[in-house]
Amino acid sequence: MSRRTLWIALLNLALLSALPVQAQPTTKLRIGVEGAYPPFSEVTTDGQLKGFEIDLAWALCAQMKRECELIKTDFDGLIPALQSRKIDAIIASLSITEARKRAIAFSKPYYSTPQTFIARPGASPDISPTALKGKRIGVQSATINEAYVNALYPDSQIVRYATQDQVYLELKSGRIDYSLVDKVAAMAFVQSPAGQGIQPVGPELRNRQYFGEGVGVGLRKADARSLGASFSSAIEALRADGRFQRLSAKYFPYDISPP
User: Fold this and answer.
1) What is the DSSP string of 15-69?
2) Can you tell me the distance from the alpha carbon of 99 to that of 94, in angstroms, rounded to the nearest whole number?
3) Looking at domain 115-211, does it have CATH number 3.40.190.10?
4) Considering the entire predicted model, what is its pTM?
5) Where would a tag sit more exposed on the chain, N or C end, judged by fewer CB atoms within 10 A?
6) Where are the domains positioned within the chain?
7) Superfamily for 29-112+213-251?
């Protein structure tokens, strides 16, 4: 190597050394969960997250070989947190509806269940809008159930709450007359000590327009092809080898896989 070549090489090395060190991009996947919707997700007395979707999130991360962090977020703040890049994905019983698909993308569905009204003993099983005129219906804000009762029960008093647990407390106390909730979550509540005396009323409700095509992982539209495909493939793998069904059996009396 000539002196000139050596001098140029040393100069380039010095210039590179003077440049600021660039932070390495993180590979940790930040997943937003609610933590207030048992048995899908809740916080234990010692502050730990548990539930079907908590276990599912870890299983999906393991399948994708990704390091993950679960971030507890209020349900009505999940989509804003996703759009502002505070989280990278949502696993929080987020139904795939046309309205939501205008704002974000989804993986393929990972569960699907009907909705049901619940009420105290003696409530009429007639849940038609006419029968519930003037009744107080409690729902969790920003949910498919809020959209449903807003549209179809204009003569009822719709009372909105930040969490489903708050809805249950208000129903038990008599401050609301009915609540509309996912049937799996409803049955977990009515069969628990806290839900004694509460019961499902009326038929199961399945309305694709309002309740969507099942529950999926919420994602930014820009990530639909890459991260969305990864989540969808992981969901398929968990269903194919029986891991999803074993998780479902841990929390529910039947398989909640979508059709």
Assistant:
1) HHHHSPPPPPPP--EEEEE-SEETTTEEE-TTS-EESHHHHHHHHHHHHHT--EE
2) 12
3) yes
4) 0.86
5) C
6) 29-112+213-251, 115-211
7) Periplasmic binding protein-like II (3.40.190.10)
